Fold this protein.
Amino acid sequence: MAEFPPKRTPQIIADERVTQILRAADSWAADAPAPLTPAVRAVCLRLAEMIADARHEHLLNPEPLDPDAGLALDLIAKRLRSPATTRGLEEELEALSALELRATGSWAVVPSAQSEWTATAITYLEQRAATLPVAERPGDYWADDLVAGVIASFRALVAG
């Protein structure tokens, strides 16, 4: 008789995904100039949270989302907002909040809010890069490329 591995619970899935997201955020941040590392990590956390909390993507699905998958997504979003995850990034996250990136959480139910959020994330990173000396600034369109890459990779990670 074949043995089946134990069922992965939503908590285990969420733990794995958050660990992968944090590693990916560190990797994305490592590619930016060192002074921009906290800003990039903060944007990565918010993008991953937005992707995990995108309930609107499931509203039109003819088949209901598996309850365990829905719970895992909720847990991922909550853990990405937790103080344990955001420690050391408070100033960056506060600056993002000032740009209303997390003000309403509307990204979860309104698809257009995600586009607005990503545009604001790009603007935020460009503003942070503009504070660096000219010789240390990343190239043109670096923020666009970073945000697009983060979204693509985190969608794959979150969807698992």
In short: The chain has a mean pLDDT of 86.
